[in-house]
From TrEMBL:
<dbReference type="Pfam" id="PF13740">
    <property type="entry name" value="ACT_6"/>
</dbReference>
<keyword id="KW-0378">Hydrolase</keyword>
<dbReference type="InterPro" id="IPR036412">
    <property type="entry name" value="HAD-like_sf"/>
</dbReference>
<dbReference type="InterPro" id="IPR050582">
    <property type="entry name" value="HAD-like_SerB"/>
</dbReference>
<keyword id="KW-0479">Metal-binding</keyword>
<comment type="pathway">
    <text>Amino-acid biosynthesis; L-serine biosynthesis; L-serine from 3-phospho-D-glycerate: step 3/3.</text>
</comment>
<feature type="domain" description="ACT">
    <location>
        <begin position="13"/>
        <end position="92"/>
    </location>
</feature>
<dbReference type="InterPro" id="IPR004469">
    <property type="entry name" value="PSP"/>
</dbReference>
<keyword id="KW-0718">Serine biosynthesis</keyword>
<dbReference type="Pfam" id="PF21086">
    <property type="entry name" value="ACT_PSP_2"/>
</dbReference>
<dbReference type="InterPro" id="IPR049148">
    <property type="entry name" value="PSP_ACT"/>
</dbReference>
<keyword id="KW-0028">Amino-acid biosynthesis</keyword>
<dbReference type="InterPro" id="IPR045865">
    <property type="entry name" value="ACT-like_dom_sf"/>
</dbReference>
<dbReference type="InterPro" id="IPR002912">
    <property type="entry name" value="ACT_dom"/>
</dbReference>
<dbReference type="InterPro" id="IPR001763">
    <property type="entry name" value="Rhodanese-like_dom"/>
</dbReference>
<dbReference type="InterPro" id="IPR023214">
    <property type="entry name" value="HAD_sf"/>
</dbReference>
<protein>
    <recommendedName>
        <fullName>phosphoserine phosphatase</fullName>
        <ecNumber>3.1.3.3</ecNumber>
    </recommendedName>
</protein>
Length: 414
């Protein structure tokens, strides 16, 4: 019998490994029920049909506890033999459960996820005093997603360190408090251009006006800091004067959704989340798109139309950086959702206030300045991995699709 402490044994750790099949846990715990024991901890994982089951038990009686544990160890070995599995039993000291500082969830996304990347991430966690309590895979495609439960590390220190590590290793890493991930109603708010969709709508409209180059030049001036967003929007919209309103329908049909966008929105709404889009683009395109996808709230700029043509002006206040953050707060209040249960997704400087205001800000294929200020970032070309950052597994996505009769693409063979 192995002992991991010199003091009187008070716990027994039983680990079974072998081929997975129904009833392993029931068989083991059923046999242990014959002894005066309580279960202190349990964990199980299955990889490629191989099961590892760990059960920590302790005696419920004061006298003869060592004999109880010895008998339980013999029982565990007998169960393992009957199931043609391997058993490892370790006697230990009383179970101490001290409070753990910094209970965090670290999600690692790779396309592909290489051993060197996971090694680099886990080494950095260890170097900062973090202990990895649990590792599970939450998705195998379109990216591989691994979730690590970490204790003992400071959230901000770990987030900053892993941001550097993720950039060097070519993976996406999110660090968040466990509390954010509890089930309940969330509000997820997305930017539209270059986030929900692959296009910049104003450039599609500019194509009809024959002024793509001019619109792009104004955009570049704004990116250089020569114009703020409102100024740049007014300047670009002015170039659209005279475009027939009918061109907007053509633009709507030309819009390309980002891969995974439908899956993301469909899954969120089926699981009871509230979804919104806030765009510096235009309602003539954003509103029909939101309706098509079943998005609950939408806000965007309104183009003025007179006698069937664009006037080159915007009606009402511009949806700029500050307005996006305000829309997030307004939608959250309308839905009765606290701000710490809000998620914002965006790619540009115009999204920074919204990303900062949300409980979790996600930079999606964003410029470096945006990624540096967001809570986490995604660099893969798919939008549905956002689900994995929210604790939604690939299996849950497929189950929701199956229940609704939606065909799910077959995963790649690995």
């Amino acid at each position: 019998m192995d002992h991991d402490a010199d003091e009187q044994p008070r716990t027994l750790l039983i680990t079974l490994t072998g081929r997975d099949r129904p009833g392993v846990t029931a068989t083991l715990t059923g046999a242990l029920a014959a002894h005066d024991l309580e279960i202190l901890d349990a964990e199980q994982v299955v990889i490629r049909g191989r099961l590892t089951l760990g059960v920590l038990v302790g005696p419920t009686v004061e006298h003869g506890s060592a004999l109880v544990l010895d008998a339980a160890a013999d029982t565990a070995r007998e169960v393992a033999a009957s199931l043609e599995m391997d058993a490892d039993v370790v006697l230990g000291a009383a179970e101490h459960v001290p409070g753990r500082r910094g209970r965090l969830l670290v999600t690692v996304l790779g396309h592909p996820l290489l051993p060197s990347a996971l090694s680099g991430i886990t080494r950095r966690i260890s170097a900062l005093g973090g202990n990895i309590d649990r590792i599970v895979r939450t998705a195998a495609y379109p990216v591989t997603a691994i979730e690590l439960s970490v204790s003992g590390a400071d959230q901000q220190e770990l987030r900053e360190a892993l941001a550097v590590e993720s950039a060097a290793l070519g993976v996406d890493v999110a660090v968040q408090r466990r509390g954010l991930r509890g089930r309940g109603t969330y509000l997820v708010v997305m930017d539209v251009d270059s986030t929900l969709i692959q296009d910049e709508v104003i450039e599609l409209i500019a194509h009809h006006a024959g002024c793509e180059a001019e619109v792009r030049e104004v955009t570049e001036r704004a990116m250089r800091g020569e114009l703020d967003f409102a100024e740049s929007l007014h300047a670009r919209v002015a170039l659209l004067a005279g475009v027939p309103e009918s061109a907007l329908a053509e633009v709507r049909s030309a819009v390309r959704l980002t891969p995974g966008a439908r899956t993301l929105v469909r899954t969120l709404t089926r699981l009871g989340f509230r979804v919104a889009v806030v765009s510096g683009g235009f309602s003539a395109v954003v509103d029909p798109l939101a309706e098509e996808l079943g998005i609950h709230h939408a806000r965007a700029n309104v183009l003025e139309v007179v006698d069937g043509v664009l006037t080159g002006r915007v009606v009402g206040a511009v949806v700029d950086r500050a307005a996006k953050a305000e829309a997030l707060r307004e939608f959250a209040a309308l839905e009765g959702i606290p701000m710490d249960r809000t998620v914002a997704i965006g790619d540009g400087a115009n999204d920074l206030d919204m990303l900062a205001a949300a409980g979790l800000g996600i930079a999606f294929n964003a410029k470096p300045v945006v990624r540096a200020q967001a809570d986490t970032g995604l660099t893969v070309p798919f939008l549905d991995p956002v689900l994995y950052l929210l604790g939604i597994t690939r299996e849950e996505i497929e189950q929701a699709d199956a229940e609704a009769g939606t065909p799910t693409p077959a995963p790649p063979v690995r």
